[in-house]
Every structure is written in structure tokens, then in C-alpha cells.
Amino acid sequence: MAKGYWIAHVDVNDPEGYKAYVAANAAAFAKYGARFLVRAGQSQQKEGGLRSRHVVLEFKDYETALACYESPEYRQATALRQKASVTDLVVIEGYDGPQPGRA
Fold first, then answer.
1. What SS3 class is residue 56?
2. What CATH number labels 4-44+52-93?
3. Of 1, 22, 61, 71, which residue is least crowded by CB atoms under 10 Å?
């Protein structure tokens, strides 16, 4: 079964408010087994336009990724995030099919 992911691109406009969001999202992320694969870190913009902060979260499957986003725990955190940042976020199903050059 393919994993589920959140991919977010964020511009933080209130660093203190964003810290409150990070503290609040922990309950939902723990409950739904989220795992950070990317959390800010160094990056280089090579093409197109993106926001300044990038986050990728992994979940056991797509349904769990959706359930976390729609959960009451995350809805509370979302209100804090929306006050402190501008975010583009997609919930997406991973890919378990053939890979290039591999049998």
C-alpha cells in the first residue's frame, strides 16, 4: 500500500505565532503517526516560484494523511498556522509502482 504525504510550502510572517502552531500540531502528528522527511532545512530554488520553508510529512497511507488533516486536533493547529503564515499544502498519495531502470 502506498504511503500518504503532506507537502507544504510556507512563508512565516509571525515567527512567535508559528512556534505556537508547531507546538499545537504535535498532538495530531503523534496521533496519526506522522514522520517528518523534510522540515525547513537548506534548499536552493532551481525553477519556478516557491515559498521560503518546505515541509514533507509521511503517513502510513493516504487515508491516514487525510484523516490527520481533517482531525479536530489539526483543525485547532490550522487556526494558529493561518494567523502566522501563508501556506500551500497538498495531501498526496505516494507511488509504489515500477521505477526507471529497475526490474
1. strand
2. 3.30.70.100
3. 1
